[in-house]
């Protein structure tokens, strides 16, 4: 593995770790109704939910867990890291699709998350490219 490939994997790992931490933080904040995270329960009517607890748990476990798991592969410089990152990206894409479908576009953070998803996918593809060439 070249130094460039290792550096790309480290950047991917750090990005995934920070992204996972933000998903877990967001999930906990939704559960707790923290300032800036207290949203109208009416938005959840299509799902039949009466609180943000289940979406918070799903965000922390599904999105945060997928990103954290993917980061382990990248920190270990495992050749499966790009695939794990793409899988975490698929989980996040599903999360966003459900979110946009149920509550619509309601906050700038949704677009920030889409941007971060694009960065994740770009890093995963770059790491895959560099692994194949090394």
Describe the structure.
By secondary structure, the chain is mainly alpha-helical. It has one domain. The protein has 4 helices and no strands. The chain has helices spanning 3-32, 53-75, 81-103, 108-133.
Structural class, from secondary structure content? Answer: mainly alpha
Tell me the fraction of residues in β-strands, as a range: under 5%
Q: Identify the overall geometry.
A: elongated
- Indicate the mean pLDDT: 95
In short:
By secondary structure, the protein is mainly α. It has 4 helices and no strands.
Features:
134 residues, 0% strand, mainly alpha, elongated
Draw up the topology in text.
Layout: H1 3-32, H2 53-75, H3 81-103, H4 108-133
Helix pairs in contact: 1-2, 1-4, 2-3, 3-4
């Amino acid at each position: 593995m070249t130094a460039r490939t290792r550096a790309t994997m480290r950047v991917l790992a750090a990005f995934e770790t920070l992204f996972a931490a933000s998903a877990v933080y967001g999930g906990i904040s939704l559960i707790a109704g923290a300032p800036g995270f207290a949203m109208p329960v009416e938005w959840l009517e299509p799902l039949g939910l009466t609180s943000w607890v289940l979406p918070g748990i799903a965000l922390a476990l599904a999105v945060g867990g997928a990103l954290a798991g993917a980061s382990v592969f990248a920190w270990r410089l495992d050749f499966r890291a790009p695939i794990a990152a793409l899988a975490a990206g698929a989980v996040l894409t599903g999360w966003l699709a459900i979110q946009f479908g149920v509550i619509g576009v309601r906050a700038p953070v949704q677009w920030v998350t889409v941007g971060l998803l694009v960065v994740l996918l770009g890093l995963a593809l770059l790491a895959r490219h560099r692994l194949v060439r090394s």
